[in-house]
Amino acid sequence: MSDARNDHMSDDRGEGFPDVRAEYGPESTRTPEKSTSVEPAARPASSKVPAWMRSKLANDAAHKYDKYGGRRAHEPASAHVQDTKDPYAKYAGVSESTAAPDPYAKYGAKPRLLAVSRVIRRDPEPEKPRRNYRPKPSKEPDEFVAEVAAYTSVPSLKGQGNKFDYKTFQSNISHKENKDINSIVRQHYNQRTHQSRLQGSRTRSPIYKLRNFNNAIKYILLGNWVKRRAPNTPLVLLDLCCGKGGDLNKCEFVNVDQYIGIDISEASIREAFSRYSQNKARFIPQNIQARRDRDSKRYNFEACFATGDLFTYTIPEILEKNFSGIVDALFPVDTVSMQFSFHYAWETEEKVRTMLTNVTRSLRPGGTFIGTIPSSDFIRSKIVKKEFNEERAFGNSLYRARFEQQPPEDGHFLSPYGNRYDYFLKDAVDDVPEYVVPFETLRLLCEDYGLILKYRQNFPDIFNLEIPNYFSRLNKNLIEGMKRADGKYGVEGDEKEAVAFYIGFVFEKVGN
């Protein structure tokens, strides 16, 4: 889903993809040999591909979809291919002898739906938005056009003094009770993206310190657990539910060479691409060793962005439509990052398994899956202590979680899936449906998919244990943005409980 809460807690900058975009355009009929890019014709398309990718792109791509269970390019959409050598079959819970023709069939994926992805193409010089520019609404969902007026009517804040210092975010999703969670989340973060441009200085936000705190947590998690395979190999990071590109600065912090961002919100993806384009280094050496001298104020990595539903479709279904050859060229990746969004998948077992399949099949052996989710232990303690009101809600002045149904007294739900609550975080999340993530269930499921738990900690403990190692390494503005009234650093008051709601985790891919 939309970096779902990745952005309400982040203020970092965004990303894009090597100039293979010029070679692999968005039309499904394009091939590397027949590029119709608008790039200067004087340069052959192959010269735009980094040297470390050329050998891979030269290989026959006939089997590019095998490990994801997708169809091959030369076959009709209705065809299914039996692949008894799929090294990932054991993670899908199917033996080689009984493997279904399409390992994604049990998860409900549709092989023909490659068109679900949308991509933002890179222009030579991105055009700056006009003053009072109103973005064109997406063609989906249908309600989007009607909702634009609700958040583009915010007064212009520039030069208005204190009259419009800051406008706290509020969503306006009509007939929410009749929509599925995908539609609600997509519309919520489309609105969040557009309104954030008109709110004013983010330093005036009531959760400014909380946002900085959560950004520090993600710097720590990525800084400790993102590792490249070998010294002179490119470091590739796949950012699932990337939102507006809030973790782009963190990718530069850990020296990423290639970034891939996917999100369900088209508005968020456009914002992420814009952030990346505005801050990308003018020259990025193709030689990995030459990238050691990085421009500290720019993004020294290549990036690409696509819109897609990661809880329903496979990675190739989302990416290959617009980035032909990307799976061969860049996968498996070193790290999969998924921040403040996995909880949306826990509506059904199908969605959780589809996401975990995408994670494990995208990772190299030894690669890491890094994420942040609501703490099931924290939620259970609130239920057991009966710290909720007659509306089945708990929280404080900053956040609120309200259960759809009366939770069990012991805090243990009969099913690990579908345990819904509506979450509110001031100036960030406006009563969006989420689902409890029972961590022990997650751990056991991950083991089935070849992912072994390496680290788990709640946010306050991560900060207290690790911040001494990062205090001098993090951006000064980020550190100062966590300064408390007593002169110390961190969160205070109601912010403490709001951040204790979350945990960070790291799983490592084992086997093939």
Automatic annotation (TrEMBL):
Q: Where in the cell is it found?
A: Nucleus
Residue ranges constituting the MRNA cap 0 methyltransferase domain according to the UniProt record? 205-510
Q: Answer whether the UniProt record assigns the keyword Transferase to this protein.
A: yes
Q: Which reaction does it catalyse?
A: a 5'-end (5'-triphosphoguanosine)-ribonucleoside in mRNA + S-adenosyl-L-methionine = a 5'-end (N(7)-methyl 5'-triphosphoguanosine)-ribonucleoside in mRNA + S-adenosyl-L-homocysteine
Disordered: annotated span: 1-86, 118-141
Q: Name one GO cellular component term.
A: nucleus
Biased segments, Basic and acidic residues type: 1-24, 61-86, 120-130
Keywords in alphabetical order? Methyltransferase, mRNA capping, mRNA processing, Nucleus, RNA-binding, S-adenosyl-L-methionine, Transferase
Supply the EC number(s).
Answer: 2.1.1.56
Q: What is its main location?
A: nucleus
Record GO terms (molecular function): mRNA 5'-cap (guanine-N7-)-methyltransferase activity; RNA binding
Described function: Responsible for methylating the 5'-cap structure of mRNAs.
- What is this protein's record name? mRNA cap guanine-N(7) methyltransferase
Origin species, per record, is Metschnikowia bicuspidata
